[in-house]
Amino acid sequence: MRHRKAGRKLGRESAHRRALYANLVTSLITHGRIETTEAKAKEVRPLADRTIHWAVGVSDLYGKGLTKLSADERAQIVHANRMAKRVVRTSDALSRLFSEVGPKLKGRPGGYTRILKTRHRRGDAAPMAFLEIVGGE
């Protein structure tokens, strides 16, 4: 029985799974939309939302400019950067997260990503889905 065993293992060890999730979140932030299996998309979505939430939380502080901020506000930005850096792998994706994605989603109360089911993959018939950042449409 799998009582109290949350999450899918996806046929990987824990370190490999964490690396997979981090790479998927990085690609999502870089490209705005990725196609992956439904199971991976459902597992990555909470991690992506939590990472984007760090950027949304300090987006108003980024707009002020670093020179006009108090030490407390600068500490908030540094903390958010470090927390997002635990998941996001590249500096390009990290800067895009805080400069573009965070301010774009500033007014939203959550739900920064969506899953769109697409097709069955040829070869193994795995159900595929798009995981995308919700735009301003």
Describe the 3D structure.
It is a single chain. This protein has 137 residues and is α+β, with helices and mostly antiparallel strands. The protein has a single domain (14-133), classed as Alpha-Beta Complex (50s Ribosomal Protein L17, Chain: A), CATH 3.90.1030. The chain is built from 5 helices and 3 strands. It has a 3-stranded antiparallel β-sheet with strand order 1-3-2. Helix 2 packs across helix 5 (91-104). The mean pLDDT is 94.
Q: Which structural class is indicated by helix and strand composition? A: alpha+beta
In helices, the fraction of residues equals: 40-55%
**How many beta-strand segments?**
3
Q: What share of residues are in beta strands? A: 5-15%
How many DSSP helices? 5
Question: How many angstroms separate the termini?
Answer: 43 Å
Rg from alpha-carbon coordinates? 17 Å
Strand order of the largest sheet: 1-3-2
Task: Give the second-level CATH assignment, the architecture.
Answer: Alpha-Beta Complex
CATH class: Alpha Beta
Query: What coarse outline follows from CA principal-axis ratios?
Result: elongated
Order of helices and strands: HEHHHHEE
Main β-sheet: number of strands, strand sense, barrel status? 3 strands, antiparallel
